[in-house]
Write the structure tokens for this entry.
Amino acid sequence: MNWDHSDYVDSVCTQLRQSDYYRGQNRALIDQLANGAQPFSPEEADENGIEVNYNDLSLTRSAHDGRSQLANAFMKPGNYFKCTTDMGPGHRRADYGAIVTREMNRIMKRSLSYFECYRSKFALDILHGIGPSVWQNPDKWCPKSVGIDDVLIPGGTTLDMDDLPFYAIRHSWTAPQLIRKIRAPKVDPGWNIDLAEACLEWVDKETQYLMGSTYQDMWSPEKLAERMKSDGAPYASDQVPTIDVFDFHFWHDDGKVAGWRRRIILDAWSDPTMAAGQVTQSRRSAVNGFRGRQFSKDFQGQFLYTSEDKVYSSKREEVIAFQFADLSAVGPFKYHSVRSLGFLLYSVCHIQNRLRCKFTEAVFEALMMYFRVKTAEDMQRALKVKMWNRGFIDETLEFIPAKDRFQVNSGLVELGLKENQQLISDSAASYTQNNNFSRDRTEKTKFQVMAEVNAAQSLVSAGLQQAYLYQEMGEDREIMRRFMRKNSTDPEVMEFRANCLRQRVPERVLIPEAWDCKHERVLGTGNKTQEMTIAQFLMENMVKFDPESQRQILHDVTVSVSDNAALGDELVPMKAMHVSDSKHDAQLAIPALLQGFPVDIKTGMNHQEYVQEILKGMAMQVKKINDRGGVATQQEIEGLVNAGHHVEEHIKIIAQDEKEKPLVKQFGDVLGNIMNQVKAFAQRLHQQRQQAQQNGNGKMDPKDLAKVQAMQLQAQTKAKLAQQSHAERTAQKRISFQQKLAQDAQKHQADIAATDLATASEIQRNRLKSME
């Protein structure tokens, strides 16, 4: 279909909305019952003489419990999701991931808009099994939750959306909202400014009419924008008509680049109501219809927005994401076949409400006092009887005893109520808590409790695991991608990037392609009973795990018991959970360096952590020498000098990065301070030896003389080994150079031969052509 004509788009959107109208009626029944609507309509109550008509809120309570479990599953962890990267130095990737995760989730956790988006999705998941969320523009990271009725999906579309050819989102924009879209600092060229201005002008006239203004003609047309800006509240009120549009997206792969294109058209005929099987318009629709007919003269066939042949989004998740909690039993699972907890509970909750109403009527009837009368006078006489401490009753009045009155089968009623309640509990077990609390007073064994918990866990996985997966694959990854946008205009995205860069995360790493995310999950998937059972099991068996795992278990159990992620991070911080490989290598190298043994430089390590740990070991050795009087042995001095040279080599490697100059200076200052103290140790040792020689008439102690000779021999040996090593490296380089020259010469000869062969072939072909 040609999507370049607004009539085609309008026709498709109208068909989608009409097809969804009957589904919306079913959803409305579930919503009304969950909102506390009476089970009998006013017409039914009048026709059948129903006196008691109330909602026992069984569906409301079940929906609330389901939302609570979803909230615990998604909102309880300290982070919404964890970010990991495979880009950058191997020893720095964990640090990059921790920084990005912390800074991104810190902004998300303090966002009230995102919190409300989650709450709306939870409510939609419980009642209808589908929780959509959309992004208003390409830069803003926080999505907005929308109603299922505002998202139009073709019939037969599967849940993975692989067969989705197009979809539409219905928006109702106020005048200030449209102004922000067409008068932003960077306006998308796809907006039809003339049509948008005409819409704003119509809203202004309608607003003046509804507000009872009589002097609008005195205002100049150029003041329209300023008036809407200054009087934004009236223009955004419920009485002011909105600008209703269809935001239409379709997949196009005929051009050079495949992707989703975008068209926006005005929704001129909205809010349909059914009358005699035909669609009619309400007063609001009539207003919109008037608007549509008026605009058709000047803007017939025009889009409010069009991306033309440009790709607006490469993936559907860049515009809209879905969180599914489908409990359907028939596959293949399709969008319009989703069955939710609200669908499963509606029938039984509706019957339960009607049964309770009739039962309550019977109770009220049983409390009434009946008299048997023969005439109207007897009835009037019975009404005058006063029932208190003492009284007299006319002998003509006859009480009707209980045995002669209609008796309700209380056992059958109680059985019916209990059976319905059991059905509600069984259907809601996937999301709600078990509130039995041993009402039968029978103590259960630990095995029975674990069996019940495992059974409930299998039911919970039916809906919650889907919600986790679709949340991670759709919304989480898109939010992470938007946080990684380099030129984003969202202030919070700019704040995130600035915080990451300030913490030494390279800008080349902050790209969407380098990152992946995993949604954080809590113990028990949000069910408190299962959560505490798992926590108890982990604590009982904690000694069987590794030390790192033990700290993780203690952290998770603390969060589970307190329901406070911040308290868990404070009491059991995870940042110092394990020793890195660089620190461990440094701790093993310190004794060897202080003994004077050489230690080779290992590639691919975190040189910063390594140098920091070596300096710490050298400082401890210097402190030990100072504590015993500040006089070191010759071996201790040599060891510190050896360690100093080793640290200098690593500092040179760090200095290759221009951004690490402050850290290189800091390491150099610390090393210089340590080496100054080593020089002081050497000077004291030299003075001590001179004093010993003077006391011995110029003769050195044989032990000291042997040490000096050994030191000289060691130094000569080191120099000789270094000279041999240098000669070997020089010889290897010379041999490699000669081999390269030989290879180049061979290649040159081969190239010459190939050139000669090609020339001879060309001459031969020319001769043949001449002969022909």
